[in-house]
Design goal:
The chain is α+β, with helices and mostly antiparallel strands and 84 residues long. It has one domain (2-81). The protein is built from two helices and four strands. The protein has a four-stranded antiparallel sheet, with helices on one face. Strand 2 (27-34) and strand 3 (37-43) form a beta hairpin. The longest helix is centred in the last third of the chain and has 21 residues, at 50-70.
């Protein structure tokens, strides 16, 4: 079972918010949405250690940083795993 949360952030805050969400854990997927279109989607492995997830996501985080430099505001949609 999963639930979805959305955050609206400025372009300057996008990369830090995505990193924060990844480090929180229990995240299944992160989507960056701009003008109602998904621009970047980052699938994450459930149960993987944070260090491994960060290393795997490093190229995608670089893309997120480049995207963040181009937008003034976007929505981050996070799909979380619900704990039983």
């Amino acid at each position: 079972m999963s639930k979805s949360e959305k955050y609206t952030v400025s372009g300057a805050e996008v990369l830090e918010k995505v990193k924060q969400l990844i480090h929180e854990g229990n995240i299944r997927r992160v989507r960056l949405i701009h003008d109602k279109k998904t621009v970047i989607e980052i699938p994450l492995t459930i149960g993987a250690p944070v260090a491994v997830v960060t290393i795997m996501a490093a190229p995608l985080l670089a893309a997120v940083g480049a995207f963040a430099a181009l937008v003034t505001e976007c929505t981050i949609e996070v799909e979380k795993v619900e704990e039983k």
